[in-house]
Specification:
Elements lengths: L9 H16 L14 E2 H10 L6 H9 L6 E3 L5 E4 L21 E6 L3 H7 L9 E3 L3 H9 L4 E6 L1 H6 L5 E2 L5 E3 L7 E6 L1
Antiparallel strand pairs: 1-3, 2-3, 4-6, 5-8, 6-9, 7-8
Length: about 190
Amino acid sequence: MTTEAPAPDPDLVKVSTFISLVLRHRPEAAGLTLDREGWTATDALVEGARRAGVALDRAVIDRILAQPGKRRFALSPDGSRIRALQGHSTDAVARDLPAVAPPEFLLHGTVARFLDAIRVEGLKPGQRQHVHLSSDEETARAVGARRGRPVVLRVAAARMARDGYVFHRAENGVWLTLAVPPAYLDGFDPG
């Protein structure tokens, strides 16, 4: 007998999406300013969300942070500040994550319609500051599935590092690099 994971709470998804928008891309949507590490006052986020018509309080933030799956946000130890862990597109944020030696291979989830461009241009960050990679196939497949039938690409990360490319690892385990040239990709594996 298989048990399915419970469906996500649509209200929490809506609020989490708003928090991602504000903490990653458009802090001005909630009247916020982010520091270079992406932090803003938790109370300011709550108030900014309310002004934007999004029902948010500390209990909702705690529920979002407790959701299973990839952690997208972090609170400071005293809970007074909150930030997105990665995925920023705003120039205001330039997290100072240390360079880390990656494993031999990392994975990237995408969909088939992007493969022709990826084969020519490699992986680019798009609107974000970094290309996001994972160390496990399940996560890569889930990321690709957000846009359709997933395809998992294998990145020769250790070889990239030996060739001078820099990798970082966010607190939630997401691997970050500026770009992945096509020469470091293989395993165009439709799921």
